[in-house]
Automatic annotation (TrEMBL):
Cofactor(s) named in the record: pyridoxal 5'-phosphate
An MF annotation (GO) of this entry: transaminase activity
Name this protein carries in UniProt: Aminotransferase class I/II-fold pyridoxal phosphate-dependent enzyme
Keyword Transferase in annotation: yes
Source organism: Intestinibacter bartlettii
Taxonomic superkingdom: Bacteria
Length: 358
């Protein structure tokens, strides 16, 4: 795993002599409470399913996603993780010019470069607390007639999110395709921020989600995209491998998307801990803390006592990993990001940060 995708626990374990399980990884943005027990128990009790082929149409899985996202099952495409769908959609639409909301996840630019697409970055600004004015964004899109706009919502790493009404405003006032990456939207109020309901009414909208972060299942590689444009959907499906979702991933998805108790419990716990971390980080005089709608918080070392990379190195012997944000274009060497972990781990992070900045 490259630096652009968080910590390599294998390398760090070897370097510091700790087991991978000992590290408190505040860089990964994965739900620390684990995945749905219902889904895990089903797999354990039905492990012989590995001797069967999955349903090539994934009818039950798509129906579960349809219920979860409140959209038509016909508008769902499945991928081996969200990254496969980012790549498939960009190749299919083949934009000549793209407006990329930045700073951003590196994979968007990586895939756009594969097709020699012109990339123009629209940077959110520190002086605005990384909040973007939707009307100014629409003006920028229309001024240069971009073929595609890419928005991570909530944005990684800033934590800013457009509301669903604001995304609808973009769709109503532009002609380009709009790709919304909702990897982190489930950690906030989906009734306000999720765009899945819009897919059935707007053909130019493509919403991408994965199960790695919220459902804590990066190992099963299950992602899904929602799109109303039948031609684009058919082209994406045509280029995907038959049975591209293995039977373990499909079966887990069928259960966990409908496990309402797991979903509500996770949201409650994550919001409570996000509030704790935001307030506690804000109490450290050397830090500027930015409001977040994701399961992570962007911070800046305002005192410049040391860089974020130096801070990361100071925390590693304490078995704590944070994400320095130097690899995100538009952020200086003093920015770092922490995700929300379990209560005891969050309190250890705060304790160690207060000691370092004292």
């Amino acid at each position: 795993m490259s630096v652009n995708h968080g910590a390599n626990l294998y390398d760090l374990s070897s370097k510091y002599g700790f087991s991978k399980d000992e590290f408190m990884d505040f860089s990964s943005n994965i739900n620390p409470f684990g995945t749905s027990n219902k889904a895990k128990e089903y797999i354990i009790n039905n492990i012989n399913m590995v001797s069967m082929y999955p349903d090539p149409e994934y009818v039950d899985l798509k129906q579960a996603i349809s219920t979860y996202c409140n959209c038509l099952s016909d508008n769902i495409v499945l991928g081996s993780g969200a990254t496969e769908l980012i790549s498939s959609f960009i190749k299919t639409v083949n934009p000549q010019s793209t407006l990329l909301i930045s700073p951003a996840y590196s994979e968007y630019e990586h895939e756009l470069n594969k097709i020699d697409c012109e990339i123009v970055k629209y940077f959110s600004k520190e002086e605005d607390n990384f909040i973007i004015d939707v009307k100014k964004l629409v003006e920028a899109i229309n001024k240069n007639n971009y073929d595609l706009a890419i928005i991570c919502n909530p944005n990684n790493p800033t934590g800013f999110a457009f509301s669903r009404n604001e995304i609808e405003y973009i769709l109503q006032n532009t002609n380009c395709y709009v790709m919304i990456d909702e990897t982190y939207v489930e950690f906030t109020d989906t009734n306000i921020y999720s765009c899945t309901k819009l897919v059935d009414n707007y053909n130019k909208l493509f919403v991408i989600r994965g199960t790695s972060k919220f459902f804590s299942t990066p190992g099963i590689r299950l992602g899904y995209g929602l799109i109303g444009d039948k031609e684009v959907k058919e082209k994406i499906n045509k280029n995907l491998d038959l049975w591209n979702i293995n039977i373990i991933a499909a079966s887990m998805g069928e259960i966990m998307f409908l496990d309402n108790q797991f979903i509500s419990t996770t949201i409650d716990a994550m919001l409570r801990e996000r509030d704790y971390l935001t307030n506690s980080l804000s109490s450290i005089n050397d830090l500027t803390v930015y409001p977040s709608k994701g399961n992570f918080i962007l911070c800046k070392i305002s005192s410049e006592k040391f860089t974020a990379k130096e801070l990361r190195e100071k925390l590693l012997p304490k078995k704590i990993i944070i994400r320095d944000c130097d690899s995100f274009e538009g952020l200086s060497e003093y920015y770092f990001r922490v995700c929300i972990l379990k209560p005891e781990e969050n309190r250890l992070l705060i304790k160690n940060l207060k000691n370092l900045f004292r």
